[in-house]
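Appendix C. Worked example: Colipase like 1
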Amino acid sequence: MMLPQWLLLLFLLFSFLFLLTRLSPTKYNLLDLKEVCIRNQDCQTGCCRRVPDICESHCAEKGSEGSLCQTLAFFGQYRQCPCLQNLTCVYWKSEKWSAIAYGRCEKIGRQKLAKKMFF
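Step 2, the predicted output written as structure tokens:
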């Protein structure tokens, strides 16, 4: 029994579309730690860290207390990941270059922050 040509073409078209949707990355398909990335939005942690010695970028964890940090991304990547949510990137004024600053992650209490702002 032979199938009509249009039915066979229709089947091939739907098969191709099915495979195309399964293979294409979606916005929910985020990369794990140490996987190669292109920009911060590719990673689950939100940090695509460029290693200075090699020409690769990998997904990395955000900075914990005392670790190096960076305030802004440069071309969608970091040299040092920003701090975790409850920490702040503290840097010396001399360490600030343009809008990008490098510092260390520290926990700052509300009183310390208010004192620093007003005095």
